[in-house]
Amino acid sequence: MKLKTLLTASVATGLCAVSPAVLAADTDGLYLGVGTGFSSLENDQEEVDSFIESGSDDFEVDDDDNVFKGFVGYEFNPYFATEVFYSDLGHTRLEGNDIGNTDLESQAYGVNLVGQLPITSWFTAFAKAGMAQWETDVDGNLGDANLDLKDNDGTDPVYGVGAQFNFEPFLVRAEYERYDFDSDYQIDTFTASAGMRF
After folding, report:
1. Which domains does the chain have, with CATH numbers?
2. pLDDT digits (tens, 9 = 90+) for 170-186
3. Checking DSSP bridges between strand 101-118 and strand 123-139, what pairing results, if any?
4. Looking only at Cα atoms, what is the longest distance across the chain?
């Protein structure tokens, strides 16, 4: 339901914001944008336990949180671009059963290669793949002072797909991305973004 609402809002915003007379065909050059959406953890309780090295399974995972992102890109031609990005991936809450809660707060930055398929002068589908330097901070110990839960970081793949509406000099996009921290912690994000070309 959230994904449907997000996509509908993105399309409606894009189509209502400008008239067809200002739709753009020129797509090469510098652009930047910001976006927001929500995240979803793709791992089960046992895998999360392995990720933070808690040695405990006495908790439930609440993984629904807001995402904020920013990106700067350069389009070399209508089919290829590169982007650098920063993403605040929100937090995953581990709700202890009859004990304390613990939050895992994640962020990432990196670079993507973007392959684009212009459907019309104003609508483009795209896919991206790249590398992200990520960090997950653990706040809490599941109510057990004997637990020494581990912060985690690394450099791993990120990839995604999306659709973009081009309104010169503005752009509106909706996209799905997966941040593949490791096999025990994979975050999916669904975002809508607005940006500008220069």
Report:
1. 2-197 (2.40.160.20)
2. 999 999 999 998 777 89
3. antiparallel
4. 65
Adjacent-strand bridge partners of 176 = 161, 190
The answer to whether the pTM exceeds 0.70 is yes
Which residue do the tokens 């609402």 mark? 5
State the DSSP code for 137: E
CA distances from 31 to 187, 189, 196, 197 (A): 26, 21, 6, 4
Contact 39, 90 (CB under 8 A): yes
Q: Give the dihedral sign, CA 16/17/20/25.
A: negative
185/42 Cα distance (integer angstroms) = 7
Kindly report, residue by residue over 55-103, the tens digit of the pLDDT: 666 677 877 789 999 999 999 999 999 999 999 999 888 877 656 778 8
Structure-block tokens of residue 187: 């975050």
Distance of CA 198 to the CA centre of its chain: 24
- Adjacent-strand bridge partners of 153: 135
